[in-house]
Structure formats: C-alpha cells, structure tokens
Amino acid sequence: MTENRQITPYQAIGGEAAILGLVDRFYFFMDALPEAAGIRAMHAADLSGARTKLFKFLSGWLGGPDLFVQEFGHPRLRQRHFPFAIDESARDQWMLCMNKALDEMPMDANFRENVRQALQQLATHMINQDE
Question: PANTHER family recorded for this chain (predicted)?
C-alpha cells in the first residue's frame, strides 16, 4: 500500500532555507530599488524585525511551521497593516520587490506563478487607501 502524501508549498519552495533566502532578497530589493522607496519609508531603518515577521508568516502561509501564529497569534494582516497608508502604488512596490525575489528562486515556473498570484491577491487585500 502506498502512502498518498501531499507536498506542501513550503516543501516545494525548499523549506526554511529557501524562505529565508526569499525574504533576504525581498528586503534587498526594497532597500536597493528607487522604485520601492515608498514602501521602504514605511519600515524601520533596521529591517531585522520585518524580516523575521515576514519569514515567520510565509513559513505558515506556505504550509510549513506556523511560526507567526505561535509567536504573535492570528496574522490579521489587514488589521496589522491599518497603521500604514497602503494604496495601489504601495502594493505595486511591494510586489515589485517580491516578484524580483521570486524570480531568483529555483522553482517550477507554474509553481512560481501560483505563488505570485496568491501573493498579489494578499497584497491587494492590504490596500486601505485610495490613490
């Protein structure tokens, strides 16, 4: 009898090391790209806290250890982002950095596109300001 085990997106992306790499590249692009200055300005000078939170969130969101929930409780992402004025431009800047980071990750093209679309929907949900 064979066991039917579903591979999680967390496993497909490469687990903890890959997510840490994705987060590092994401924040590299946020720091480096002039086009991302708007969202960079929303963050503290020291990005270590943001890096940790994004890593922990993505770990659980992709089906791995639910590190964010264990430490901070339910993500309530929209509520946690209310203090920040997030419009379509901020969403697009965030996605620019994430897309560049995703493009550097070694993964199946269809899987990358699925992750990209899911993150785009999530980022759109964070919009709380009109242009």
Answer: TWO-ON-TWO HEMOGLOBIN-3
